[in-house]
Amino acid sequence: MSSSPDAQPRDALAAIQRQIQWNRLIAVVEEQAQIMIRTAFSTTVREAGDLSAGIFDLRGRMLAQAVTGTPGHVNSMMESVGHFLAKFPAETMKAGDHYITNDPWLGTGHLHDLTVVTPAFRNGQIVGLFANTAHVIDVGGLGMGPEGRSVFEEGLYIPIVKCFDQGKANETFFDILRAGTRTPAELEGDVYSLCACNDAGARRLVEMMDEFGMDSLDSLAESIFEASSRATLAEIAKLPRGEFSAQISSDGYEAPVTLRARMTVSEDHISVDYAGTSGLSGRGINVPAAYTRAYACFGIKCVVAPEVPNNWASLLPFRMEIPEGSILNAPRPYPVAVRHVVGQLLPDLMMGCLHQAVPDRVTAEGSSCLWNPPLRGGGQVSGANAELPDFEVITFNSGGTGARPTQDGLDGTAFPSGVRTMPVEATENVAPVIFWKKELRPGSGGAGRTRGGLGQVMEIGGKNDAEFAVNAIFDRVANPPKGRDGGGDGAPGWVGLTDGTLLRTKGFQVIPKGKRLLLKLPGGGGMGDPAGRDPALVARDEADGLV
């Protein structure tokens, strides 16, 4: 039976309206994220953008995420909203409620990430959920470092609780929060920031629904999910079928860590089995399973379906089998404070598999994990003779990314986390430290037809060269990023003092008075035979002093 003459114009108009609604939804969640950045107290949020923001339906399925944000936060936050709903069902929520947790196994993998979920109401009816995650400076305990032997040593553990009840602050919660941190004003301020940005998202959503006369998000959600699923499956169908294996090494803590993956590409899904991966560590480099899934899915999606919006449906075809007892599937109460050191290697591992299927679509290995030294000083380091006031600060920095098939890698750029490098002025403004040097590291990119991105050189001292401490959480020192297709490896990282003294790559260490911390960040691996490099690019690199 043929459709009526008016059906096609109506369908076309509906499709246009759906696209407008989708664009508005992206604008809503991006405003949500930008408000968090503008109101945050922690430099990790307002300067580095270590956050995520998104909107969910009442079943806890992510419809859309903000452009601003990190995949480790976004993709694990996608799972966490379901845990909130299991404890506080949507029908019990009230306008003005805000719920919070930093449970590593219900959130984004370590205690330094706060996740807040907020219901949105229209005409007295709940219509959606907003969620966000932000990395805060301090939650007490040993601080952000690898040395805890259980999660209980790593800081203040917040179960899923209500921090605001119908707009009224839960003062008992805030009393406990302030008492459990070295930076009480900043931590409390960040919680208010997270709640405020969700409120702003809820207001904008209601405005959008009023404008379009929408009583619920159900129809729009199903349209988004159907389109995203169809597009993702179409991209998977283009891949060669088969099994592809790869492995990658991390410096680890007690011993090197090996990550192994066997990827199976089927007609309608991609599965990854991590059998053979190293076992659990006694220190905080372990990775909760949600964080493993977050970064592994991101690595696959970057290659297979980068243009498809990231949401519940587009991630559904990516399946993970993570053996119990693996460092990638840490159970409670294993320490997990610096799970990113291992977890952020996963996109490179996924690309190692996919390189065998679509070699022209992957990069060489990069520096991967952030070099974000937590710095501490004052009486908590030097006792009664401290020359500096007490401080706790963290600064985000990155080495080079791997070379791309047709372009060089990016210099000093965070991949896969996507956070911004923090300006030294921002850190110096909030802590008594001085960055004496921060520059690109010549020659650190692996040679190749396309060169790996350059790392950095950083020299950090206390004000007046006073004593301070670093909680080292560095990797890619003993295991530098590898090149692909004949490309050279990137330069390994280096951790020590300016006088040449070597420091451990992980763990709390004091920088003596008169000494300075020197960090040489790793470069990315190269791609292809160096003999095939464009002579003009070689001359440019030489002229710029990059080789």
Automatic annotation (TrEMBL):
Residues 524-547 are annotated as: Disordered. GO terms for biological process: glutathione metabolic process. One of its GO terms (cellular component) is cytosol. InterPro entries: Hydantoinase_B, Oxoprolinase-like. GO terms for molecular function: 5-oxoprolinase (ATP-hydrolyzing) activity. It comes from the Bacteria. Residues 16-530 form the Hydantoinase B/oxoprolinase domain. This is Hydantoinase B/oxoprolinase family protein. It comes from Roseomonas indoligenes.
